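Hey all, sorry for the wall of text incoming. These are the two entities for the joint prediction.
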Amino acid sequence: MSESKTSSVALENSADSRTLKVAILGFGTVGSSVARILCDVQPRGLELTHIFNRNVARKRVDWLSCPVVWLEDADQVLASDADVIVELVGGLDPAGRWVRSALEAGKSVVTANKKLIAAHGVELEELATSRGGQLLYGAAVAGGIPVIPGLRQGLAGDKCNRIEGILNGTCNFILSKMEAGAEFADALAEAQWLGFAEADSTEDVAGYDARAKLAILSRIALGAEIAPELVPAGSIAPIGAIDFAYAHQLKCTIRQISRAQLSPETSSVGVTQVQATVGPMLVPEASPFAWSRGTENMVIVTGKYGGDTVFSGHGAGGHPTAVAVVSDLMAIAHGSRSVAIISQKATVTGDLLLRHYIRFIVKDRPGIVAEIAGGLARQGINIGALLQRPGYPEDRLPFVVTVEPCSTSALKRALDEIGKLDCLVERPLELQILEPENGAG
Amino acid sequence: MSESKTSSVALENSADSRTLKVAILGFGTVGSSVARILCDVQPRGLELTHIFNRNVARKRVDWLSCPVVWLEDADQVLASDADVIVELVGGLDPAGRWVRSALEAGKSVVTANKKLIAAHGVELEELATSRGGQLLYGAAVAGGIPVIPGLRQGLAGDKCNRIEGILNGTCNFILSKMEAGAEFADALAEAQWLGFAEADSTEDVAGYDARAKLAILSRIALGAEIAPELVPAGSIAPIGAIDFAYAHQLKCTIRQISRAQLSPETSSVGVTQVQATVGPMLVPEASPFAWSRGTENMVIVTGKYGGDTVFSGHGAGGHPTAVAVVSDLMAIAHGSRSVAIISQKATVTGDLLLRHYIRFIVKDRPGIVAEIAGGLARQGINIGALLQRPGYPEDRLPFVVTVEPCSTSALKRALDEIGKLDCLVERPLELQILEPENGAG
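and here's what came out:
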């Protein structure tokens, strides 16, 4: 095969006869997996030519099957004859600047950068289209699981109205460890030791990583562009062993769930509204979400015509993420063009009508249940069940109230009032209960 | 948008400005769902223009949002200016003739015809490519679940070595009803009454439908072209309530599983060999396969780099299948080209090293277990467990033997010998036991 001197526009029309030069920006775990797969699978029409990393000398490997230019100046990569840039640096800057610059030069870009795509995906895709390149980011959500290609190719014909997922492997690892009896701190430490979690685990634990991914899926599945920072995110840190015990009693378990659905309000007001939220939730033991273990990711897409479709697999890790990157590279090399995403800006509300689980820890005295029930009743919230497990000290007594479907905002008002009660040892923990009719079927 | 007078080659280069004329061949459940989605979703670049059916007058509907030519002569459709033919007639002939003729004329074809694609997919794809059209068949396997786009786009970068699935919704409906206590005949009758099963259920029950789908997946996932009729297929008809009882005792349930994996022999002999089989198998209760209920389909793809990826959802029914058809139409309208499948002819063996479940029904007398154990031992097969539930009559006594991993062919030889024992009331039923290390993780 002859080498290509052209940009991706020309390549699309001659996909069978040219070889695309591929440059990798960022040679960490995923970057070296991409190189390894390219050497092993040797996909037709792709040739690894450049690798960039800071202090690149310490990154050099001897197992590459082709000659590669090692660089520590990203501008040299951007100025090179590479046709496709694989951006694996992450973060908004300088990665965003490099991606923009590559697209402006008519190159195509494959990236796993969920933060960049969640924040600037629409604009960058428009830039790619206008310069004749492509921007693919199958690796940005759910790693090796082909959710994005599945949505863009396989479910494009449906009207999707809801998307739910386990989008953060670290949280799923921690919660499934806790389900098996571990304490939060130990599970987190193990995740860090195994390399699943960063030293600063805030992005994962607080749900920020997941909501960037949710924003990307919202655009692709629902056609609704949402700002990730507007999605209410709850941390999994307050979850304790006691919550798994109570969840079990309710025939549920606990998972970090990201969900977005088109609001029924949308049609009446004309502006698309998305009900979106990320955080630990009670999921029924019969839900596919309850089956996911370890760092697995899972996405359930609900369509008007196709019903629920479930995708699951390895959402993180070098190799699975690299599979998504190489698959995107092959799509470009084969001249495949994705079905264009038609989307519009949307507003976000975290307000949903759902059952909730509320766990209190109190210093016991008479009248507590009446006071809590009164606080809920004043916001029109009905109690479903009251659960109290034996064997806890009276000065740190945990018990759980489940409430019938109520809006998140009404519940917040009730808990603001109840939170002032002198008997409370800590702020009550409220979790949404995911039910079959609310997905997770 | 102006209408297209050109064939699909030109359309690919002008996907944004032309509208493709779509003709539907076969206006049954799926065909009318396709029309309904096209009217509802109104995907850009697609216009329904022709509908063909025998005795088309009785098929006319009044809810179409666009003028359509109703025809009962397929040749008129093929001779029309339709750009894309949606073939939903099924079967090899005349559907195959019509598809070939459309592709020869440079039209693109979208089909749900698994029989045709399993038998002639390679040749028809070559024909499409040579004439500048496309042949897409996402609806041929697992209905609305985007397994084919997922494999072709999202997992193309991996080296897949195994594919396993629940590919027949009718069998899954029957077996999950039996799991809940129904008898085979009643479950089948209910499936027929609900329209899931044909009056002649042989294709479904005997595994012929599933193995055609397995042959298609083998080519896409493993790059191995196999003849469906060479894949050993076992019927689910002999499964009884007693088998679910014993399976449960082994912490398993029973599902119709289709599986194909690259044989370890492949590399040594040069010719690709695929271990493939379809039939009822014991699957662990912890396997995703055990969670599938009703007419659901599920596919698990195992890759060298990405590990296991699970797809599940509605594998059958008018609407889900139509979603796959419309998604393929949109891919053509948007000028998307799939990653080309690189495949080669492969041989098939049903011989696998697996644990097996063998259920005997005997007229009790002393010495039976010794005779059976002897028959197995003479083929080098070790017994794992012997299960016998109380409460059955002595002249029709069921019991189960599980055996350690042995080749299917050795087991067949042993059962041929054991089958001659005078105590047997019916031929022993042997089922493969799917284990995590053999997939179904």
